[in-house]
## 1
Amino acid sequence: MIKLMKYLKPFTISIIVIICLLFVQAICNLALPEYMSKIVNNGIQQKGIENSVPDVIRKNEFDKLMLFIADEDKEKIRSFYNFLDKEQLSDLDYEEYLKDYPLLEESSLYELKALKKGEIDEINLILGKAILVSLDISENGFTLLPDKYQSLLGLDPFLIISTMSAEEKTIVMEEINKKIDQLPESIITQSSIVYIETEYESIGIDTNKLQENYIITFGLKMIGVALASMIISILVGFLASRLSAGFGRNLREKVFSKVESFSNIEFDKFGTSSLITRTTNDIMQIQTIIVMLIRVVFYAPILGLGGVLKVLSTDISMGWIIAVSVIAISVVIFILFTVTIPKFKIVQKLLDKINLRMRENLTGMLVIRAFNAQKHEEEKFDKVNRDLTETDLFTMRAFSFAFPLMTLIMNIATILIVWVGARQIDSGSIMIGDMMAFIQYTMQIITAFLMISMAFIRLPRASVAANRIVEVLDTKPLIVDSTKSKKFLKNFLGNIKFENVSFKYADADDYIIKNISFEAKPGQTTAIIGSTGSGKSTVVNLIPRFYDVTEGRILIDNRDIRDVTQHDLRDKIGYVPQKGILFSGTVASNLRYGKERASKEEMTYATEISQAVEFVLTNPQKFNYSISQSGNNVSGGQKQRLSIARALIKKPKIYIFDDTFSALDFKTDALLRKALKKETKNSTVLIVAQRINTIMHAEQIIVLDKGEIVGIGSHRELMKKCRIYKEIALSQLSKEELI
Amino acid sequence: MKKGNKINTSSKMAGGKHARKMFGDDDKAKNFGKTIKTLLSYLSAYKILLILVVLFSIGSAAFSIIAPKLLGDATTKLFEGVVNKIYAVKNAGIDFSYIGNMLLIMLLLYIVSTLFSILQEFIMAGVSQKLTYKLRKSISLKINKLPLKYFGKQTRGEVLSRVSNDADTVGQTIGQIMSDSISSITTIIGILIMMLSINGWMTLASLIVIPVSFLLIAFVIKKSQKYFKRQQEYLGTLNGHVEEMYGGHNIIKVFNAEKRSIREFNKINNKLFNFAWKSQFLSGMMQPIMSFVSNLGYVVVSVLGGWFAIKGVIKVGDILAFIQYVRLFMEPIGQTASIASILQSTTAAAERVFEFLNEEEESPDNNEKFEPKKIKGQVEFRNVKFGYEEDNIIINDFSTKILPGQTVAIVGFTGAGKTTIVKLLMRFYDINEGAILIDNHDIKNIRRQDLRSSLGMVLQDSWLFNGTIMENIRYGNNNATDEDVIKAAQAAHVDYFIHTLPDGYNMIINEEADNISLGQKQLLTIARAFLANSKILILDEATSSVDTRTEVLIQKSMEKLMKNRTSFIIAHRLSTIRNADLILVMKDGNIVESGKHEELLEKKGFYTSLYNSQFETSSQL
């Protein structure tokens, strides 16, 4: 997986932008519970009053509060307030203020100036404490007053304080503050709220309205945040889908081009079908994973961490609940995996097995019925079916425990939070809204954790796919052009010479062909015959450099074929494989593989020789007849004829027919070879064959057995001196026909 | 017939099960209602279990739905306690015993709910696995009951193997659909009730966003579906191109066409990219939209809840409960789309399975007395008329009588239908008119099993299966002892080669049956025929892909096998043909000529031209 990351480089900017956006999205999503908590705490519980700093206060109340405040703070607080007085205000201003504060008519007021957040925080606690003392005096009869002054309590407490000397007051206030400091901060805030609410009511402000406004304001903020989150999320989706699709496209292109540069050695190593899967499905899988990676693996940790930070930033000491539930869920997941993963592998095997049985039942149907073995087969199938069912059932049941358990853990976490939270609310260290928000954060963190662990289930599979792709990309083709390649001469003849050529696969012990030496001359047909596995095809496959010789060398016109470019070499060769291979397109597009701008006449001529002209011309679209994938809509024989025409149109100097004729019936085979003979008059022709009558008239026949030449000569000569040739011949034709 | 073709082309295009799955059209059941009915009738076998599943899943949903309300109540109590404390009500404080009780009840509810949902899923897993097992079993049984006619087209094999995958799909998803839809419905109804019991206006307000979200989702799905289809199309094209180019790699190389191939690839690849990101982007929009809608619900609940809480219409805890309800409510709504699409592909899969299971079976056996081991081996074709399709008769009024011990050679070009006779004899196909008689028994009147025991078969694509060599030979006669098998192997000249193999008779033939050579395979099937010891033989001569020595060996053991048996040989060798008592000349599945070698040559008909082209002499070149 890591190795593929370098291919993400062109998308670095996208990725950075995405991560930034994801951060913003996480912030948005994390803000929502906080706003909700504000609505509950400040909006509902505190009637829309946020802190201990009143927006407006009567002059006498203000003065009272000032009694409990140290001198240096007094100045600061005074400077934060405007003094409103009927006499001092202009008529216009007065009218305006009167609307908001009806009490202005009777009493002077202090109104808070527009302040910055930090400035409010500065005076919040100071005012809160003063309010607490003031409330204590009016409601409880000054219980906060230190004991030694309690005797004075017959008098007006405010008077007591105001008449004290500065030193004395400082001492008293210190004592009082000590007592207050033992109280939770929320108690100070809560009592200030009550005080401020009464104050507002006396000034004539509609507190209900205030509360409603507060809630609506935050509601609108929440909608804004949600909307922002959606837009960002869609943006991320846009970038992520372009990124993943683009990544997939680039990767596919790289893999495909790489595979096109492969030689047969690499094809053998990977296997054609595996290469196909690597180019298509594997990359598709990576593409989907990338989206998931961005959406989940990037986002979930951001969200989860954000949640943790939020939780830590509050005063709530319930982090352990989250930790415990995450651990509990990990345990469930861990057990689930250890129990099911080995079973998954078994299921995969059993699935293959059941498909195999099914396939066997189908392909062997004739035999099964011929031998009356239906019962036997049914029993075999039933056994696998039973095994598969049982294993599947086990894993499904394991999962049926896991998911409800995880939900239960989440729910228990909620219950715990409420229980523990209730205690902390009681002691005043948190508020209800905080607890509610905490529940939401906990859910977010746990969900993020679940998402990550689910993503990790898929990662191993993806990394298998990734490794398979990397394997292809990291493979260096073994057959490459030499740096000092030479060109063939202008008057190219096509004389092929094998000099002690041996070949074996790199990792094999045994040679496929050994010590092969012969010469194929222009104007002559050289045939190669032998039983299966004798190395016939290998010999001819060395000529276009599908493979390179292990030992010895192949010369064409006295030039080692490894010294010319592959392009140049193959340009000279007309090759027809064992199985006719066509590509989707039209007849013409296929023939033009041989010559890119072949004319209609050229095509007609080539198909005439290859005995395909009748097939082409009898259908209405003629050369535009469309060929479906791999030529599936054309019969095997016709495919073969067209692929012969494709080679003919190239008019090469060297023809290689690799077992080309065995798919044709004898009659066509004969006609075709007759026509070919004329066409290939000046070329070197190599024919690999299994049928004696295909090759018996060749100028030179090479008999291969177990990779070695056991006979070379004409039909007559070989009949006399080569035992293996004779054996092959006699097994196919009667004596009289072999003369 | 038509359907088979259609499925095949599209599966080829999309290049695989999964790609096809997303294709859309192909994945819709043609008759939704009927398929569901059949599926339900299959499920009715598990009626009691399914009723339990329904009950448990209702229970599980119901219990978990009550909990948030209790949580809300607990929170309200908490809130009241706090507020009273602030306003310094006498003896005020949080009622911990009440809250504790509530939480305990909740815990109980959750545990019960969890138990229920575990039970429900546990039972459902059993049901769905049983169903899968049953479907697969029915398919495997069905295969053996279908007439061979059904498999006439090669592509059927493909269709069938898919049917078995379909059975899997049905089994795996049916459980999910059932439990998901039951719990979704229960959840939705339950939550509605709970929400309404708290506050009607808030319910209305928080749910008003749902139709909006449905519209949005429908729009997005419609848009993305379009691109998705195009994406699948180009994915299919791309897969096709890759398959072709890799498959014909040598051709590409030798014609120096790599650049051309890459150019073509890039063209498709770029188009694919275009549709891929669009479909990905559009379908990816679902989630943000859904979560916005759900957030909107959250906001509505917070604001409106706050409002009502101030007015004293609802309590603070109700907001918390409501928030949870809205969240729970959105889940099944979001699932509807996925349940619908799973349901669609499940019914499509189920339909294919049922269609297969409903295919017409072979006619039932008749029971004329016939002892396979005691027959003489006389075969008579009496006015036989046959065609693979009703309106295309290929054998017209064919009559001939083969005496016990005689040899019949069947000749013709590749693909001329030489195996037709074999298939008729074995009664893989029923003839349209006339009769085939073995020892004067019409093969229609005897049990297929008996008929087939009287015929031994050695075919060209020798069919071996994944198992030991011993097991493979024993296939000829399941009651044979190990000694019998070894004797048969010796008779077929195969004992020697088996001993050279690793593990000898216990060597396991692999899945592709390619760990022994083609010739060896054929030898093994000859041994199998020896073991079966039938009076009538059907043989296929070795082809040229067998090496010479093995070929000689095969010929020798075949000759030995044919002694004293009536034999039908799909012949390639001239000597066989010449020595045959009767030659059947096939062309396009039809017997065009029949008789002895010399007779046929005199006729100067098709046989003569076949003979001449097969064994053309050198003078013509």
## 2
Amino acid sequence: MNDTNPHSDDAPPTTWKRGDSLGAAAISERKDDAIVARAVTINRPVAEVFAYFRDFANLPTFMENVERIDILSDTRSHWVVKAPAGKTVEWDAVVTEEAQDRLIAWTSEPGADVANSGRVEFRDAGARGTVVTATIAYDPPGGVIGKLIAKMFQREPAIQARRDLRRFKQLMETGEIATAAMNRKQHEEELA
Amino acid sequence: MRALAWHGKHDVRVDTVDDPQIVNPRDCIIKVTATAICGSDLHLYDGYIPTMQAGDILGHEFMGEVVEIGAKSTLKKGQKVVVPFTIACGSCYHCGKHQYSACDNGLPADNQDIAQELYGQPMSGLFGYSHMTGGYAGGQAEYVRVPFSDVGPIVIPDGVEDEKVLFLSDILPTGWMAAENAQIEPGDTVAVWGCGPVGLFAVQSAFLMGAERVIAIDHFPHRLELAKKFGAETINYEESAVYEALMVMTGGIGPDAVIDSVGLEAHGFFVDNVLDQIKASTFLGTDRAHSIRQAIIACRKGGRVSMPAVYGGFIDKFPLGALMEKGLTLKTGQTHVQHYMPALLNAIMEGKIDTTFLISHRMDLEDAPKGYDMFKNNQNEVTKVVLKPGFN
């Protein structure tokens, strides 16, 4: 990638002001994909953080829009994700790359309601714990339903990814996810 | 339960609302025995703080009895505790450095967006202080859900009266940290703007830390009297020119350290302040800030500026040049309450710090709206209002 880097600085490709498609190409073959990248530092050992994330069945505990993930095999999973107006979108995902305690990447299989791929890197940060960098690429869909979905996926992935990572950090560091709900009824309404 | 809810500018009411419950494993529920109205609650009352919603329960200075505990709380039912106003997890990097008000995890994930946009990074949660600080229900109520109860609340020994320890929740540690941030050296002269509760505790703390002289600045005669009681010299800014007085009183040097405990609603009709008021009312700028400007100008070269006062947004005509050219050090921040509580509880128990002198009014929680009105409109006599559920 360095061969094609038109930049003189060390900023991550996903933060480049121009050459977006090069940034997208860093993680996705579909060069028109929208790209979201977020980093968070979690004050826990990298092995623990990686292990929790690698078990995709855990992801709905902190990914607000993900209703459930069924594990189909060691590398394949079925995702059910909330969409506007009480609808859901679904896809099968397959792990494309994995390195113990360092990296997990996945992509949706053909036929997905929303084609997408993700790449999460884990780096041991010593006394500060683990740096988790997540990059999500997705293909904004067309059509009427597509527009509804896009409403969620175009406007929100940046916010959603940031919030999901914060919840992941809270769960890893404090054992719970912060809420201002005064009682359990309010809390259930928040999660619905 | 009954609770004091915000409904708009100068409109607070005691409403009947749902009781709180344990939601997360580290929570506890306390039955409030005493709670106070803070000067910073007046910022909410006056409508200066954004992201308030009708029905929000106010109050961040409170204490009470533990009546319910979550599976991971380390408290026991029946214990008397004082609750820090900052909601901090105790397990993130910042809590590890005792920078509790910078906790990464005190705010719900969704509520972190505003502070992230406005300040660059989100801060800890606060009780009863707008949705930007978490939207947590506050302590001017009969019951409160307290998150992270295993690291926040401090247990009070049996037999100690509430009023002696209540201010551990905010204003005592805030006054103490203000003096600590002034990095006082023996022999120093320290000037304190604002003789509200934080300023008065800063006066006491500064002397305990070795200041030789403390000069207190306000315009309420009664508050200046209180400062004098603790050994401070006073300047009434309605009667004397503050900068000139300070320069003469310090032999032309300026105070070694200055503490601004006034904040965004500085009183007084100074030219820059009037401009700030016009801008605040037209949303061009949110903070009125005469005290911090004056403090920086008065401070001696190479001196220290401590700013415990609450500022939320932007100000202009900030004397950045004076700060730089004079080589001043500026330290500030929301109080790391959890860090200071144990030592300050000891200081109270040993009689080194007087806390109860501050309380001018005691009322039933039901009378809280009257308390706000009095505190807002008669700051000379009303130094601190303590609310007690079932007091009448």
